[in-house]
Amino acid sequence: MIGYDTQTGLERKFCPPDAPLALGEGAMIEGYASLFGATDQGGDVVQAGAYGACLKRMAAEGRRVKMLWQHDPEQPIGIWDEVREDGRGLYVKGRLLTEVARGREAAALVSAGALDGLSIGYRTKRAERDASGRRLLSELELWEVSLVTFPMLADARVGAKAEDTAEALLRDLAEAFSGARRVLAEG
């Protein structure tokens, strides 16, 4: 879990894509923003179908899931043309808007391999805990899917080869903050 906003109830999660995000013609990007059945570091498991009701409701209302830069609601950077559930998870496909300064930045960073993560912003509508204490998320209200630089989950890296001390320190700090947020959210 990247974070929990106590005022809005918005949560964020990172999911590493299968392969590094690549920029296609017309600044197109695609990948999985969430995987079903995978336990994240916060002990949460998104269940198949968790996004279904939200995606149907948004489509009926003519609304779209937002594409943001680093979860910042003031910095939309593109359009998700396709957001759907399949047997594996939440698949997204869209295009960066290179007419926007951050969209150009994101396109350059994705193209260079410096930006390779997807992260979701959502509100939990329905969840329960299993016997091992994991939170099983069965209905989510998806707000946005962001392109992110630093995943907050230890294994949420794509194509990482050698890890230097600074990266390890950042990961350890991220894990500590994530744990503290869980404690505060549950308390």
From TrEMBL:
Sorted UniProt keywords: Hydrolase, Protease, Viral release from host cell
InterPro entries registered for this protein in UniProt: Peptidase_S78_dom, Prohead_protease
Superkingdom to which the source organism belongs: Bacteria
Ribosomal protein recorded as keyword: no
Location of the Prohead serine protease domain: 25-167
Single GO BP term: proteolysis
Keyword Iron part of the UniProt annotation: no
GO MF annotation: an example: peptidase activity
NCBIfam families documented for this protein: proheadase_HK97
Protein name: Prohead serine protease domain-containing protein
Species of the source: Rhodovulum euryhalinum
